[in-house]
Amino acid sequence: MVRNHRLFFSLLISIIVFLPACRHKDLPREVGGELILLDSLNVPVPDPGIESSLAFYREEFAREMNQVVAYSPFAMRRASPEGLLNNFVSDLVLEVANELYEPENGKGIDFCLLNYGGLRASLPAGEITRSNVFELMPFENEMVVLTLSGEKTLQLFEYVAGSDRGMPIAGLKIGIKDGELGHVLIGGQAFDPDRNYKVVTSDYLAEGGDRMRFFLDPINTEVLGMRIRDAILMYMERETASGNELHAELDGRIYFMD
Fold first, then answer.
1. Per DSSP, what are the bridge partners of residue 180?
2. CATH for 62-253?
3. Segment holding 174, helix H or strand E
4. If we measure between CA atoms, which residue out of 79, 240, 254 comes closest to residue 162?
5. Residue 4 vs residues 8, 13, 99: alpha-carbon distances, Å
6. Nearest Cα to 95, choosing from 206, 170, 26?
7. Residue 41: Cβ-neighbour burial (10 angstroms; 0-12, 13-18, 19+)
8. Model confidence pLDDT, tens digit, residues 200-226
9. Domain range list for the chain
10. Cis before 81 (ω within 30)
């Protein structure tokens, strides 16, 4: 009898707990709110506690971003048909990419192509900070190696020749005549339309960005696993550790033919 009473009592407790939960679930819920106007006259009062917590992270962030990573004896700016900044970034990307690259077929990267608009700020003369590098390359774009057919490689050269901006290239020398491709050398060798070529670029361009449709449907795609910005920082820090200043020059890699 006692056992039956205990069973009945346990069942009763379960029903009492279960029924309100069911009723509550089925009831419509009311959500309240109010319109808060945010303008120059209605600025919320900062919470001192939150501001105090954020201040620490702001200081840490500022300290890191103001860290000097390199020294340049001259300012570097993008320009057309080529610029010091164009050449500096494309050269270092090709160098770092070849260091990271483990080719599936044993053949290294032939050249580099980036986009003029991807260089968002100049580098100053003197000390260069992390902040300068983030301003130069604020995007999270990664380095990608694409294997292109001779036909698509030719389309790439024609794109560079037809552009009204100095495209950042490395490993190439392109002559332009009347807005069209006049001559091209790859690593000092004449272009062979019957062979494939490997180009390192950004994942944004590899997906056809800036109307670079010749990058679509490549023979092979290999992701290097490093952002272009990180490659720039790594190169700068390495040069500084070796006691070197940054170097760039105009070498006629894009030129106009008579």
1. 177
2. 3.90.780.10
3. strand 172-177
4. 254
5. 6, 14, 79
6. 170
7. exposed
8. 999 999 999 999 999 999 999 999 999
9. 62-253
10. yes
